[in-house]
Design goal:
Layout: H1 2-30, H2 37-62, H3 65-84, H4 88-137, H5 144-165, H6 179-203, H7 212-230, H8 236-241, H9 250-253
Helix pairs in contact: 2-3, 2-4, 3-4, 4-5, 4-6, 5-6, 6-7
Length: about 250
Amino acid sequence: MLRKRFLVLFIVINIFGALNAGYSQTEERKYNQQYNPVSLIKRLSYENFKNIKLLRSAIMNYGGGEAEVQKLIDQYADATALYFEDKIEESAAKFSENEKEIFKIAKKIAGDYSKDSSLFLNKGIKRNVQVSIQQEIEGKQRDAVMDKYLDNAKSANKRASSILDDYKYSNEKNSASAQRLITSIYYYRLAKQNLFLMYQAYIEPMKLDADKKKDREMKDQLFDKMIKEDYKEDYKKDLQDNNNKVYTSMEKKV
């Protein structure tokens, strides 16, 4: 009889042990157990809010748009509500989920910026070489301003790509803060901005018409033609995005 009781007790203990182990693993998946949940909440409530704000324009212009931004905001709001309801464990888990989603989105968008920036840089280098050869044929000096903007673009693109490469094999499951990925987006934008300035530096000294208004129109048309040839049709979105602003097309304004 006693032996039976010990056997039953042993089985019960093992069942509870298994349940507790399962619970711990589940909790570890929800948020990093190395951190105090309150400290984690305080840190992520600041970092997640900042990163959502910094990513908003990029998401609106090149990501999932308003719906994707709203999802991040809703997650953040849910986590905050749980904290004020004194549901600390659940709040820490929700803030961690929000952090991982921000990271996933930031990495995808940074990858898209990388493709755009690298494509534009490649075409920009070719255009710079073509202009330089033409200037030498005409007995003119190389355009130092164009070269400077191109060097700036190359430097910014290299810095952005170096950051992105650090996250090549990471995903939302083993992610950290999206802050450095957001920094890479900043440098990709800077690279594109300097390429736009390089084309402007080439066009602005030209005298295309004696009438100032007509001259301005012709320069704008030439800039538009060259950028569409060397980059993409909807480049005006980039001009807004480079300043961290949400692009609104003229069609939407009407």
